[in-house]
Specification:
Blueprint lengths: L6 H23 L15 H37 L1
Helix pairs in contact: 1-2
């Protein structure tokens, strides 16, 4: 018996992919040195982790809001057709 995929898990996996890509882009550009220590020039991994977490939360919130709007509109249109 096939199971339906969980929409929340799909949303979280897409948010993870988006967060990884955006962190990589930000990490490559290095925000003009904002992710590195000004004295030593080494990368502050805590800041990179916080940046990833911020991108993940932002992407997940947008996915959940979009899903809510989609399903809310679908329910509203179904009620209007009656």
């Amino acid at each position: 018996m096939k199971q339906k995929p969980s929409l929340l898990m799909l949303s979280m996996s897409w948010a993870l992919i988006i967060a990884l890509l955006m962190t990589a882009v930000s990490f490559m550009h290095n925000f003009q040195g904002e992710l590195s220590d000004p004295l030593t020039g080494s990368i502050r991994w805590g800041d990179v982790g916080f940046l990833f977490l911020a991108w993940f939360v932002a992407a997940e919130l947008i996915m959940l809001i979009g899903g809510g709007l989609y399903f809310g509109g679908k329910i509203l249109l179904r009620r209007l057709k009656r």
